[in-house]
Amino acid sequence: PGAISSLQRQLEVQESQLRRIKSEKEMLQKQLREQENQLQAMATKICSLRDERKHDKMMMATEEENCRLQQVVTEQESKLAEQNQLLSELQETISQLRAEALSSRRRIREQQQAQEEIQSQAQTLQHRELQARVALECITSRFERYRSKIIQATFSVAGSKPPQAEVSDEEVLEAMQKIINERTEFHQMLKEKGVK
């Protein structure tokens, strides 16, 4: 938004300068027409004075004035050409500023769309994270119940001492392995005695 405001201010300044230069151009064109009218009047006057020899001195003054007016017209035409060049440059600058403003608006819209998309993705991830936490809690609860049953079954075997404190996974495995070994040895002994 700040970049667009800056571009709009530059655009307003350039357009104001363009209006001023156009006004100066119109004024110069008006002065040029007036100078041309004066030249035409002087030319008519010179033609009239040539027929009268007694006005030789006045003709010289008129010709000098004519030369001066020609020089003024040339200067005015040169200045008018410079104003036209400046007008062209200003119009080009204004076009560039408008294009930059349009590009800035487009970039801002794209950034807003990207931000909205990121927010949507973040909400989706938060929802998935919540689902994963619920699933994890469910699995953890089921695992704890299963572990509790294993501990209960393991230490409820005859000859086993019930645990007095929290039992680690290693202790449960050792107790189970001991039961398995004892039963294997018992079956082996029965087999050796011929008992099925």
From TrEMBL:
<keyword id="KW-0175">Coiled coil</keyword>
<protein>
    <submittedName>
        <fullName>CCD27 protein</fullName>
    </submittedName>
</protein>
<dbReference type="InterPro" id="IPR052642">
    <property type="entry name" value="CC-FHA_domain"/>
</dbReference>
<feature type="coiled-coil region">
    <location>
        <begin position="4"/>
        <end position="45"/>
    </location>
</feature>
<feature type="coiled-coil region">
    <location>
        <begin position="73"/>
        <end position="128"/>
    </location>
</feature>
